[in-house]
Design brief:
Structural class: alpha+beta
Order of helices and strands: EEHEHEHEHEHEEEEEHEEEEEHEEHE
Largest sheet: 5 strands, mixed
Low-confidence stretches: 372-376
Distance between the termini: 91 Å
Mean pLDDT: 88
Strand order of the largest sheet: 5-6-7-8-9
Strand content: 25-35%
Number of helices: 8
């Protein structure tokens, strides 16, 4: 050992070396392998500016390692001297999550948004909890109000970020109910060493309140996609306002609020055309979430047997109201809030929305009823001309 040159002891890696390859969910097509760097993980989680990791904290690990939320849990704990507590069950169930939190005295818990909402609906009670994180989908303000009522004084954080920005891009900390007197809860401000730009279709910066596509820069950007150079070139572009900086085109529509927080609106590719009208599905979901009788809501525009799109909403009830009364109530309220062409033709009531193994809402598992099965929705033609 004493005869070895100093250069032989130099580390083989640096902060731009590959840390891991993780695959996106593939919700918009074929799953893509994302090439993340050590720098992206460290910039986000070492001496984090959005929470207080450290000795004495007991951090959950409920995410599988194939889901990038596991980066927050694993390295948030291990880079800061916290205790990482592995989830002992095979599947994520709200009741078993509560048992796990209590038995292992978890005080920092991350859940995907769909699972977070289902867990909150069981009215859990854990006095040792200090931090609650969720991410993956937007939640209605009323869900946060329920969480604050159950856990007064707990830090509740809405985490947003594509895998291409190493797990997390922005975070919004919900501190009290007065933050929630808004139609939608913002996704917040950028985490450590991350920058956000909102561009319109011509590549110009959008002013306050004007929707545009979110472009992400900073130390969290990944190298690109594994063996997909053409897609890497398409999604990772040059920053027109800062020479030498690369930006990632997120495909998400957002706008800047006057308080400096970003507000999520929907996906650029989530606009559909139904009967000649261009419709933002997220806008209908926001209105459904705002209804007091509705706990969860998803809206899609599948094709029917005649190859025509129609709007279908899947909802879960807040209380024990009958399905028929709930559907009629939702339809009447939506007709007052939205133009007629944006009111779903079919509303399906479920006990709970299906989730993927990672805890996100599984939209592919939602099946629209056949038109002939919805006889009360269909008015037969009266004559040959009709």
């Amino acid at each position: 050992f004493s005869e070895m040159a100093v250069d032989d002891l130099a580390p083989a890696l640096d902060n731009k070396s590959l840390a891991y390859v993780i695959y996106t969910s593939g919700s918009t097509g074929k799953p893509k392998g994302v090439l993340a760097k050590h720098l992206g993980v460290v910039r986000f989680l070492f001496d984090a500016n959005f929470t207080e990791f450290g000795p004495g904290r007991r951090v959950s690990q409920t995410a599988t390692i194939s889901f990038d939320a596991s980066i927050l849990e694993l390295w948030g704990a291990l880079l800061n001297g916290s205790t990482l507590v592995l989830y002992p069950h095979r599947y994520l169930d709200p009741q078993e999550i509560s048992q796990y939190v209590e038995e292992y005295q978890i005080n920092m818990l991350f859940l995907t948004s769909g699972l977070f909402e289902q867990w909150i609906s069981t009215k859990p009670s854990h006095k040792q909890l200090g931090w609650l994180f969720h991410g993956g989908d937007a939640l209605a303000p009323k869900v946060y109000k329920q969480a604050l009522a159950l856990f007064p004084g707990v830090h509740i954080s809405n985490c947003y970020g594509p895998s291409e920005s190493t797990c997390c891009t922005t975070i919004y900390n919900v501190t009290n109910a007065t933050d929630l007197d808004v139609p939608t809860v913002p996704i917040g401000t950028a985490v450590n060493h991350t920058s956000c730009y909102v561009f319109d279709e011509t590549g110009k910066l959008c002013p306050l309140g004007v929707a545009g596509e979110l472009y992400i820069g900073g130390a969290g950007l990944v190298r690109g996609y594994l063996n997909r150079p053409e897609l890497t070139e398409e999604r990772f572009v040059t920053n027109p306002y800062r020479q030498g900086e690369t930006l990632y085109r997120s495909g998400d529509l957002v706008n800047w609020r006057t308080d400096g927080n970003l507000e999520f609106i929907g996906r650029v590719d989530n606009q559909v055309k139904v009967r000649g009208f261009r419709i933002e599905l997220g806008e209908i979901e926001h209105q459904l979430h705002a209804l007091s009788e509705v706990r969860e809501a998803v809206v899609m525009a599948p094709y029917d047997d005649n190859n025509q799109r129609r709007l279908v909403a899947w909802i879960t009830a807040q209380d024990g109201q009958s399905d028929r009364l709930l559907v009629e109530s939702c339809r009447q309220q939506l007709q007052r809030l939205l133009p007629n062409y944006m009111v779903p033709q079919v509303i399906v009531v479920l006990e709970q929305l299906p989730l993927t193994v990672n805890g996100k809402v599984d939209r592919k598992a939602l099946k629209a009823p056949r038109l002939e099965d919805m006889s009360h929705e269909h008015v037969a033609p009266r004559n040959e001309i009709e």
